[in-house]
Structures are given as C-alpha cells and as structure tokens.
Amino acid sequence: MWETVFSPCAPGPVATEAALDRAEAELGYGLPESYRAFCRTLGAGLANGSFRVAVPSEAPETDLVAQSELIAHSIASVLGDRPEHRFEVEGDDPSVVERAGFFGRSEAGEFLFWDVVPGRDEYEIWVLGADLESVRFGGADLVDLMRRSQGAAVRGILGMGAEPLPASFVGDGTEGSAGPH
Fold first, then answer.
1. Is residue 103 within 8 Å of 53, Cβ to Cβ?
2. Separation of alpha carbons 37 and 35, rounded Å
3. Could you tell me if 6 and 167 are in contact, meaning their C-beta atoms sit under 8 angstroms apart?
4. How many Cα atoms are found within 13 Å in the side-chain-facing hemisphere of 117?
5. How far are the Cα atoms of 38, 125, 126, 130 from residue 90, in angstroms, in the given order?
6. Sign of torsion, CA 114 88 107 111?
7. Helices in 96-149 by DSSP H: which ranges?
8. Bridge-partner residues for 171, per DSSP?
9. Which of the 8 DSSP states describes residue 148?
10. Which residue, among 91, 94, 145, 149, has the nearest Cα to 123 in the 3D structure?
11. Helix count (H) and strand count (E) of the chain?
C-alpha cells in the first residue's frame, strides 16, 4: 500500500508486532491499522520531506510512547503559563484536543495527533500548529494525511502558504536521511 503513496521510498528501521502491541498497552488505546502498517513497512524516517512519525523503538528520539509523552508534556508546560489560552479548532468539535494522542511532528514545528475515540479502528488525524493555537484536520487516517499533503489540500493542513509536499519517504539510516531531529 505505501509504495502507492511514496515514490521514492526507502524504508528505515521498522517496528515489530510485539513492539506495536507494547506501545498500545503503554498508551492505553489501540493503534490504528494505517499506522501499524506504516510502522511495519516504512518505520522511522522522513515522510513527504516534512513529517516524522514516531514508531515503537528502543531509541527515545523515535519511540512512539516517549515522543507522545514528551510532546504532550511540552505543550502542557507552555500552556500552563497561558491561563486564558484557547485553541482555534477547525470544524465543529473543539473537544478533539482533549482526546489527542500525539504521534509525530513536522519539520516546521507542527504536531500530529490522533483523535482517539474508543471503539474506532482508525482515528482522524489533526495537526496542531507550531503556534500551539491552530488545530486543523489532517486526514481520515495516515494514508489520507500523506496523500492530501502531497496536493492542494496541504494548504488546509499546514496553512495557506504551504506548497504540496513531495511524495517521498526516506528512512532513518538510509542514504539521504539526516536521521531523527
């Protein structure tokens, strides 16, 4: 499936089923199948020249659980100093932020999160702007996010000034990869 999303595609260190199950248990919610397939097939690396999706790993800088906790803690620390802070959520459900399960970031500082709704096989993906205010819909699942960001829909995901992203995946440790940031 992923070879239809990315070309060129050079996978990085992939996750095992056991590692995915461990992360799921530690996070306390099921991991979406589109994400699980991404981790088993592509692993750690740079998607569309912009997105770093955390995968279950022994390395804290790429590990899903460690990155999810770090992102959530960092955002909470910053917002703790802003008692009147309000998120500007696209759409009609501002509670999406309360169900956020962070799983990645962009090279420009945006954060990727799932809208973790119990009982669903897939979670919608949302993007929290680097300003920690704007929250935009990213896609129905990980495949949808990656495909939408490769076209004109990227403006709705990353902002009106964004240009379509390249349809590429460069795994950490492969030629052309700068590794985790």
1. yes
2. 5
3. yes
4. 12
5. 26, 12, 9, 15
6. negative
7. 142-148
8. 45
9. H
10. 145
11. 5, 9
| pLDDT per position as a tens digit, 98-133 | 999 999 999 999 999 999 999 999 999 999 999 898
Angle CA 127–128–131, to nearest 5: 140
At 72, the pLDDT band (50, 70, 90 cuts) reads very high
Q: What is the mean pLDDT of residues 61-84?
A: 88
H helices of 28-153, in order, are 33-41, 64-80, 142-148
Q: Is the peptide bond before 166 cis (omega within 30 degrees of 0)?
A: no
d(CA 5, CA 144): 9
Dihedral sign, Cα of residue 10, residue 163, residue 53, residue 173: positive
Taking the C-alpha atoms of residue 11 and residue 132, their distance in angstroms, rounded to an integer, is: 31
